[in-house]
Specification:
It catalyses: 5-(methylsulfanyl)-alpha-D-ribose 1-phosphate = 5-(methylsulfanyl)-D-ribulose 1-phosphate. One of its GO terms (molecular function) is S-methyl-5-thioribose-1-phosphate isomerase activity. Its main location: cytoplasm. Pathway: Amino-acid biosynthesis; L-methionine biosynthesis via salvage pathway; L-methionine from S-methyl-5-thio-alpha-D-ribose 1-phosphate: step 1/6. The chain is an alpha/beta fold. It folds into three domains: 127 residues, Up-down Bundle (Four Helix Bundle (Hemerythrin (Met), subunit A)), CATH 1.20.120.420; 154 residues, Rossmann fold (3-Layer(aba) Sandwich); 31 residues, no CATH class. The radius of gyration is 23 Å and the shape is elongated. The structure holds 5-S-methyl-1-O-phosphono-5-thio-D-ribulose (MRU). The site of 5-S-methyl-1-O-phosphono-5-thio-D-ribulose (MRU) has 16 residues, from α2.
């Protein structure tokens, strides 16, 4: 079974409102490009591939109703530009916009406006099917690769954020690898990080794991390094919002520290992403525009304030004890009385 997050038929689009999960299953109607933009911006729909698919499908629905009149190309261009601005870090929407615009401009040279609308809708509808097929291949490649290192054993995976059916047209990317391992009977357990501040791991990945029957354990983000040390993690597998030419990857906040902890523990770290998430026009990760979300997403949960409104930054330079201030390397000596603070 695979969860359904996008319901589409010609002229009609409904999306599962992921802000209400796991408590409520509500499908919202998307009738216009503006509805699509708002659903993406507010994160009713999220995950790089799903953002692009829902954005483009919202355009398909409006085109089906005749939007753009005698000049659909201008309408398509303005709509794609608007949709791309909703979540800039995930490259899939921007890339789909570029490719679709090129297609629409070519089609407009030899087709009537009605034919143009139809062929653009057809192009968009293919995105849905392509994404599911790509994800199944990612799942298969990833599972086979990970299993090649452990020929007989089951494996334990740690993943971050939500990269499953809810973040794609179906099957998932990093969670697709987990899904394939489970289907092969080789998944011992998947550890899912809660993924603060928006809790996609706790609200969405844990929900998918229960729905699909994966053996899963939810951990706080702060438990990840210890889990790597104590729980026999075979591999860390995460998704991507954008992978650039040198392999640098932008993904949900917290991915960087997982990569560092994995390296420290000698655990292989994989990024599972379709080629539509790759952006070879950028040389390094420093060129990626990183989306800044509202501070309230950290200081409240579902509108309930949970924190004082301060800006905090932690850069520990030593360990301050009642005996004095010590470097980590000095602590043992300090606590056993062999060293005194200056
Ligand atoms: C297949 S989803 C790939 C990425 O978009 C995913 O790893 C991720 O970080 C999602 O973040 P989100 O902020 O929930 O859109």
């Amino acid at each position: 079974m695979t969860l359904e997050a996008i319901r589409y038929r010609a002229g009609s689009l409904q999306i599962l409102n992921q802000l209400l999960l796991p408590h409520e299953t509500v499908f919202d109607e998307v009738r216009t490009v503006q509805d699509g933009y708002e659903a993406i911006k507010s994160m009713k729909v999220r995950g790089a591939p799903a953002i692009a698919i829902v954005g483009c499908l919202s355009l398909a629905v409006e085109l089906h109703a005749g939007a753009g009149g005698n000049d659909p190309v201008t309408f398509i261009r303005e709509s794609l530009c608007h949709l791309t601005s909703a979540r800039p870090t995930a490259v899939n929407m921007g890339r789909a916009a570029r490719e679709l615009m090129e297609f629409a401009e070519n089609e407009s040279m030899e087709k009537t406006t009605e034919q143009l609308r139809e062929s653009v809708i057809g192009w968009i509808e293919e995105m849905l099917e392509r994404d599911v097929n790509d994800n199944k291949k990612i799942g298969n490649y990833g599972a086979q690769h990970i299993l090649s290192g452990v020929p007989r054993d089951s494996v334990t995976i740690l993943t971050h954020c939500n990269t499953g059916s809810l973040a794609t047209a179906g099957y998932g990317t990093a969670l697709g690898v987990v899904r394939s391992l489970h289907a092969l009977g080789r998944l011992r357990r998947v550890y899912c990080t809660e993924t603060r501040p928006y809790n996609q791991g706790a609200r969405l990945t844990a929900y998918e794991a229960v729905a699909e029957g994966f053996p899963a354990t939810l951990i706080t983000d702060s438990m990840a390094a210890l889990t790597m040390r104590e729980r026999g993690i075979t591999a860390v597998v995460v998704g991507a919002d954008r992978v650039v030419a040198n392999g640098d990857t932008a993904n949900k906040i917290g991915t960087y520290q997982l990569a560092i902890a994995a390296k420290h523990h000698g655990i292989p770290f994989y990024v599972a992403a379709p080629s539509t998430s790759c952006d070879l026009s950028l040389e390094s990760g420093r060129d990626i525009v990183i989306e800044e979300r509202p501070a309230e997403e950290l200081t409240s949960i579902n509108g309930v304030p949970i924190a004082a409104q301060v800006a905090a930054r932690v850069e520990p330079a030593g360990i301050i004890t009642e005996l004095g201030v010590f470097l980590p390397s000095e602590l043992q000596a300090a606590l056993t009385g062999r060293l005194t603070a200056l």
